């Protein structure tokens, strides 16, 4: 797995705090941020996200339902990588939340006993000693 895939899966599984994920995301170039958003859309699809997951995702993300990414997602539109730069972090938080909701359901329904998916068998990330 690529490093960004590990980070995104750690965020979705609650192994890494969203604040750490936002700090990581905001440290990327704008082009890389857009690539991460496209990857998140793909991951949401692979985890079988549903339109019914949107309200919980908006709540989990901490963004307002009236913010552009939330309005887009409520209409099941995923072109957030095309939004202006000032909307990218909100889009990131929302898509991480959607991925988390869908992946949790997927792990519960299809991977409950055990699975061979490397992204479902991540070690706990190291913690700072400070």
Features:
130 residues; mainly alpha; 6 helices; globular
Explain what you see:
The protein has helices spanning 3-12, 18-26, 30-46, 54-61, 68-74, 88-110. By secondary structure, the chain is mainly alpha-helical. Helix 1 packs across helix 6, helix 2 crosses helix 6 and helix 3 runs parallel beside helix 6 (88-110). It is globular. The model is unreliable at 117-121 (pLDDT under 50).
Biggest sheet details: none
Poorly predicted runs are 117-121
**Which radius of gyration do the C-alpha atoms yield?**
14 Å
As a percent range, the share of helical residues equals 55-70%
Approximate shape? globular
Class by SSE composition: mainly alpha
- H/E order of the elements? HHHHHH
Distance between the termini: 28 Å
Give the averaged pLDDT, no decimals.
Answer: 88
Count every beta strand, where a strand is a DSSP E run of 2 or more residues.
0
Q: Which band does the percent of strand residues land in?
A: under 5%
Count of helix runs? 6
Helices and strands, with pairings:
Blueprint: H1 3-12, H2 18-26, H3 30-46, H4 54-61, H5 68-74, H6 88-110
Quick summary:
With 130 residues, the protein is mostly helical.
């Amino acid at each position: 797995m690529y490093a960004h895939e590990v980070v995104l899966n750690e965020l979705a599984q609650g192994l890494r705090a969203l604040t750490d994920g936002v700090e990581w995301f905001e440290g990327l170039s704008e082009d890389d941020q857009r690539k991460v958003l496209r990857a998140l859309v793909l991951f949401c699809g692979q985890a079988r996200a549903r339109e019914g997951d949107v309200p919980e995702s908006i709540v989990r993300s901490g963004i307002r339902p009236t913010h552009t990414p939330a309005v887009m997602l409520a209409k099941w539109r995923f072109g957030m990588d095309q939004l202006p730069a000032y909307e990218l972090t909100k889009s990131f938080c929302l898509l991480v939340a959607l991925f988390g909701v869908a992946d949790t359901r997927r792990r519960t329904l299809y991977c409950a006993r055990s699975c061979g998916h490397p992204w479902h068998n991540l070690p706990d990330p190291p913690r700072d000693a400070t």
